[in-house]
């Protein structure tokens, strides 16, 4: 028996640290199951499959900002490092879609003020387990607790106001593709709100208690200060059975 990351490092011809990062990012599978603990003891004959990480791409750039199409499995902070530009906001590592970076302090102050005034329009697409047949809004306060293992959020009367507007787009079997507009931007807001109405996001292990090859939450559109950026749905959403073209619009 040997630690998973060491076996993976030998198999892929990479460093132990790189192997740990791949496992921690949720990109490594063995016998059809995601490997979740890098130090887990496994047979030295274990064969791993590694999901390839898509590369980020620039949607738009000018003197004020860079709008990036962020893949799942990469942190917002890593995107900031790649483009050597500060973040305006963040997306969870597991979430794909539009991420905005700011290039000068003057514009950053204006943009941050728009977020504070809740004047930024944000639209996400989520694939969930369960069926929703009509529009619904969730107005439940969210409390976020930050610990060593990262942030965890929950609905609580002691939390901050959080509002999510949810619209069904497509139903396949017992899965629904949803459009989610948010007036607020609390940590893990969409994940917590959807789980609270028994519509957990597919692949959301933390709040939805289910596994998939990724978490199916995508930052589809953001609009503020005259700018409007969109990131079309990744191909993985089609793998769930939803009929999605290359430029599926909502």
From TrEMBL:
Keywords tagged on the record: Isomerase, RNA-binding
Q: Where is the Pseudouridine synthase RsuA/RluA-like domain?
A: 86-196
Q: What catalytic activity does the UniProt entry give for this protein?
A: a uridine in RNA = a pseudouridine in RNA
Q: Where is the signal peptide?
A: none
Q: Which Pfam families match?
A: PseudoU_synth_2 (PF00849)
What's the domain of life for this entry? Bacteria
PANTHER family to which the protein is assigned, alphabetical:
MITOCHONDRIAL RNA PSEUDOURIDINE SYNTHASE (PTHR21600), RIBOSOMAL LARGE SUBUNIT PSEUDOURIDINE SYNTHASE D (PTHR21600:SF44)
- Give the record's family classification: Belongs to the pseudouridine synthase RluA family.
Entry protein name? RNA pseudouridylate synthase
Q: Which organism is it from?
A: Campylobacter gastrosuis
Lineage start: Bacteria, Pseudomonadati, Campylobacterota, Epsilonproteobacteria, Campylobacterales
